[in-house]
Amino acid sequence: METRIIRVDFHTHIIPEALPNFIEKYGDPRWPVLEKTCSCGANIVMEGKNFREVTDQVWSPTRRIEDMDKEGVDIQVLSPIPLMFSYWADVDQATEMSRIQNDFIANIVRDYPSRFIGLGTVPMQDAEAAIKEMERCVKELGLKGIEIGTNVNGENLDHPSFAPFFEKAAEWDVPLFIHPWESLGLDRMQRHNFMYTISYPSDTALAAASLIKGAVLAKYPNLKICLAHGGGSFPYLLSRLEQGWNVWPHLREIEKPPSYYAKKLYFDSLIYDPHNLHFLIERFGYDKILMGSDYPFLLREINPGKVVDDAAAALSDEVKRAILGANALNFLNVDIKEVTS
Questions:
Q1: Which H or E run contains 37?
Q2: Are 295 and 276 spatial neighbours (Cβ–Cβ below 8 Å)?
Q3: Has this prediction a pTM greater than 0.70?
Q4: Under CATH, which number does the domain 8-334 receive?
Q5: Nearest by Cα to 316 from 282, 274, 271, 286
Q6: Beta bridge partners of 78
């Protein structure tokens, strides 16, 4: 008898409903504030402007479970909304904000262990503080990984200040989910919502290239990293990075070509087009692709895993089973029995 395919949505975001008002507490208007408009909706306000309208999908586990049941999702992996990273802030204040989100996610996982897995957030502007909060996330709260941004206050991820964090993540086998925020060229992205459709994928490509060309993956070969949005434009720029490595040997910081290290990366499946999915599989292997939808935001895939379903005729059951769920659990070091018992 064929066993049922477990569907794990690796890429979803959540925010505490009772988010404290840090503007009132610390006097800095850059802090995001959740202003409720009704019992089932709110605005996320930043610097007096409405950044995003949200519904209770973004904080209510019961509402999420209703959607999961309707859309065929067994498990969601919960991660913070990137605008909450707060890398710009005082490190003690940013740590406080991280702890609030991490505790909130851990409590939801504790209440619904068969439906949710949690990722934490850490104050990346200070490696020591980031390591300390990462340790609390995985060793005390039971979270299965950490979400970080594609850059930290404009510094690429190969900056030497981040090396101690990556070293500990590799040593402790903590998976990292890299998501764009404060991305490239925002002054040219104001029209057409290009921040989401052009800038985010470009910043993700820069993050991946920095991790490879800056020798982060070479120094920490056991580091587990998944890139949001199918790696952005990185998979399609890899051959150009390869050519640059070939023709500029004096710039090399890595012994092997970029494609060698790129094979270590993981990618979510939020790419919408089955042709792109086949390209990712051919380039990196089906075992490196994790189904992800970006629930509950407008650009999300409905139903989660649709791109895999649309490509199903050309995929074996083994490949579908892996991408739709097994790969995410393997990436997060989660035994299926942990979430189905």
A1: strand 33-38
A2: no
A3: yes
A4: 3.20.20.140
A5: 286
A6: 12, 118
